[in-house]
Amino acid sequence: xxxxxxxxxxxxxxxxxxxxxxxxxxxxxxxxxxxxxxxxxxxxxxxxxxxxxxxxxxxxxxxxxxxxxxxxxxxxxxxxxxxxxxxxxxxxxxxxxxxxxxxxxxxxxxxxxxxxxxxxx
Length: 121
Prior knowledge:
Blueprint: H1 19-22, H2 35-74, H3 83-120
């Protein structure tokens, strides 16, 4: 029989795309921590980790693929050639998306900490 997760309460997050995933199951006033709520917290933590890591990983993938195509076309087989463009591109993406990543992590951590008193009663 598949495990059913409790419904998620809507969060007061300013980012609508992730607000449903950032609210914890034990924020709804449960008296104790259940295995389902722990699974939900773990699931949400993995989702937030993927969400935060995606911009940097996709940038590295795209720049690496582009440099690989250029290397194949020009027959340059230098292994270290793609390092500097990846580093520069990832730094730029981190500067652009850094505030958003920090906001998502702070909101998740805030919801986790706010929900702790309800979980330990």
